[in-house]
Amino acid sequence: MKAEIISIGDELLIGQVINSNQAYIAEKLNSVGIFGDKMTTIGDDENEILSAFQKAYNSHDIVTVTGGLGPTHDDITRSVVCKFFNTDSIINDEALENVKRIFARRKSVPRKINEDQALVPRNCTVIQNRLGTAPGYFFGRDGKYFIVMPGVPYEMKAMMDNFVLPFFEKHKTGLIIRHRTLKTTGIAESFLAEQIGDVHKIFSPDSGITLAFLPSSYGVRLRITAKANSVDEAENKIHNVETKLRSKIEKFIYTTGDMDLEDAVGKLLSERKLTLAIAESCTGGLIADRITNVSGSSEYFERGIITYSNKSKVDALGVPSELINQHGAVSKEVAEVMALGIRTRSNTDIGISTTGIAGPTGGSPEKPIGLVWIGYSDKNETIALQFNFGGERRIIKERAAQAALELVRRKILKITD
Amino acid sequence: MKAEIISIGDELLIGQVINSNQAYIAEKLNSVGIFGDKMTTIGDDENEILSAFQKAYNSHDIVTVTGGLGPTHDDITRSVVCKFFNTDSIINDEALENVKRIFARRKSVPRKINEDQALVPRNCTVIQNRLGTAPGYFFGRDGKYFIVMPGVPYEMKAMMDNFVLPFFEKHKTGLIIRHRTLKTTGIAESFLAEQIGDVHKIFSPDSGITLAFLPSSYGVRLRITAKANSVDEAENKIHNVETKLRSKIEKFIYTTGDMDLEDAVGKLLSERKLTLAIAESCTGGLIADRITNVSGSSEYFERGIITYSNKSKVDALGVPSELINQHGAVSKEVAEVMALGIRTRSNTDIGISTTGIAGPTGGSPEKPIGLVWIGYSDKNETIALQFNFGGERRIIKERAAQAALELVRRKILKITD
């Protein structure tokens, strides 16, 4: 089954709000074998909305709509949906109770415009909204589905998770689509493609398999997609392709699926009962921020220090001033002493460090913007590796943080180049 | 002039990537008086792309396209653009030099698939890409514009800022639209609305002015939009509304426009020649990360320390163990000593600290998830404020970091509640 995902709202069209609803809906529909093959965003304009509804409904089995269900004058989605299905609005008692309950919690009484939030198109199935005042609408006619939800992300998500997905789980038919994503880092897209070689030696063009390369500043993700008649067949196809890919690029893959590199590194540290401390200069706390996004990180993350001034490198890490004077703060020597210093001072198994030039100022011909030294220290060795990252300040920080985490991963797994 | 903003990529359709490009392009076009009235996202499929191009080009003055310009087999945008304009590809010398330059920086040599990135449709104006290997294409014919850019956000942004916007700045006509956003934090949407009162006492309904409330985990943004016949008239209208709004809510506004709170705080520190050090527990480095996203932050940011273990709070900040045993690490007392400790040990003018329970585990009835103490210390006072944030782990980190930065801003400006 194919879906079109429609978002309504002037705030989206002027770019003030980034639309995360479409990605959420697409991913969730995908998980029940429904492929969103088009996303459309339009403003709060009756003719535009009607025209978008008509086109989407004609060419898709499923249409989802979010946005424009609020109480103010610019929210016209309900009335346009009524026009589209040639019906009128009625008060839904359960939705009205919900509006009153929400206002009571705020120690307030709903006014007419708030109570009108309980109006729904006649003959739709109402999707109740415990988290807000606007209910959703579900129409199923002649094997086609038209689903309207609020634009507030957490209200929409609750409706997707509690109503829409369970419905399609029960009613799904036809081809199954499954994805698996192999996340790589530390290798450019073109080198990865070369290591993999001709993809049609891995799977034939008519096998129902596709392979996509998705680059970002964190690395290249490889997405394997399989279409099949059953979940088992799809999973088997993916497994075969994954095995063949791993035989060529295993060491670059840090995880599959939703995990980030900090999750993968955290898992390794936790499993092996290793502790980590971090001394950051150019990454400015980003590595620690990512490490501490992982629940349970207090088990292995002892401390981080952001030594932005030279004085702090001397005081807090024991980097000799002469070393900084002789080689500069951005140098192999300083990166090594920083990694060693944070490890010994915090008494952890592993210490890592970053020192570099994130720009946009501070570069020189010898030490250009993007030059970053990453240090690593454990009880057996203390080293530093040189990187030259492209991009602007934030991108350089992101790439350096990713490279530092990847260095920890490879050292723990004893992966060599 | 009206624009349609098209994104291409299967990764968008399966929801693996949140599309931030459309919002960026829409906002920037808007700033030169071009209204994006539709956004469309489609997959890497030739027929779908051709059909979307045709529909968009027929009904809009401007069409922007991003995505599908990479070197691998699933990147087909260039060939579809050639088909659409009934032309072929040629190597662009400057783009080829750029590919070689980028590979030289990586101490590597481009292969055929990399050099093919320098292929561009014949007869387009090439938008060079200093940050990546794929150039953009600009077609201007019969008063219509068709613009193709890479999907990598920072490459697209550089092309928008350095090529597309300057072009339309020079060629714009018709009604002018101007926005200004007042960013507030530390006040809920409904309280802000109450402080402002009836908006039509500030501007009349037919004045060409609109005011939008845009809440996020960082605070509520107020967007003033003015339509007018000239830039001066629009700016005047906005100025009048802004002045009236400021008379009611001045202290909550930390900046207007593109600045983030870390920019505003950095500017204050820099102007007043104050230095800052940070001791983070529950925010895990996020405050330091944000502070160091600002170019020039090394001028006022001395160091940060992420004391995730109790031992590190004792060693690195001088928090007495007994204090932690008596009150717990998440307490007013510990937050205060952390702020004082980081300030005195780093010899800065201001020290701030965070200690709290980010979840999803570790909460208790007395100290629930979301409880955060934020400490502040300068030469005159050392205090800590209690917050109770809602949301999951990352949201709690974000809200705590925002509240800590806002505390610094208000202390410097001597704003009291």
Provide a compact summary of the structure.
2 copies of one chain form a homodimer. The first copy, chain A, contains 15 helices and 17 strands.
Q: Any chance you could write out the topology, listing elements then pairs?
A:
2 copies of one chain form a homodimer.
Chain A lengths: L1 E7 L1 H4 L7 H11 L3 E8 L3 H14 L2 E5 L10 H8 L4 E3 L1 H13 L6 H4 L3 E3 L3 E3 L8 E6 L2 E6 L3 H19 L4 E9 L4 H8 L12 E8 L2 E10 L2 H19 L3 E4 L4 H11 L4 E5 L5 H6 L9 E7 L2 H8 L3 H7 L4 H15 L3 E7 L14 E7 L4 E7 L4 H20 L5
Parallel strand pairs in A: 1-2, 1-3, 3-8, 13-14, 13-15
Antiparallel strand pairs in A: 4-5, 6-7, 7-8, 9-11, 9-12, 10-11, 15-16, 16-17
Helix pairs in contact in A: 2-7, 3-4, 10-15
Structural commentary:
The first copy, chain A, folds into three domains: 2-171, MoaB/Mog-like domain (Molybdenum Cofactor Biosythetic Enzyme, Chain A); 176-256, 2-Layer Sandwich (Alpha-Beta Plaits), CATH 3.30.70; 261-412, CinA-like (Maf protein, Alpha-Beta Complex), CATH 3.90.950.20. The first copy, chain A, has a six-stranded mixed beta sheet, with helices on both faces. A five-stranded mixed beta sheet of chain A has the order 14-13-15-16-17, with helices on both faces. Helices cover 40% and strands 25% of the residues of chain A. The first copy, chain A, has 417 residues and is α/β, with parallel strands linked by helices. Chain A has helices at 10-13, 21-31, 46-59, 77-84, 93-105, 112-115, 153-171, 189-196, 231-249, 261-271, 286-291, 310-317, 321-327, 332-346, 393-412, and strands at residues 2-8, 35-42, 62-66, 89-91, 119-121, 125-127, 136-141, 144-149, 176-184, 209-216, 219-228, 253-256, 276-280, 301-307, 350-356, 371-377, 382-388. Chain A is globular and about 80 Å long. In chain A, strand 13, helix 11 (286-291) and strand 14 form a beta-alpha-beta unit. In chain A, helix 2 (21-31) packs parallel to helix 7, helix 3 crosses helix 4 and helix 10 (261-271) runs parallel beside helix 15. The mean pLDDT of chain A is 92. Chains A and B meet through helix 1, helix 2, strand 2, helix 8 and strand 10 of A and helix 1, helix 2, strand 2, strand 11 and helix 11 of B.
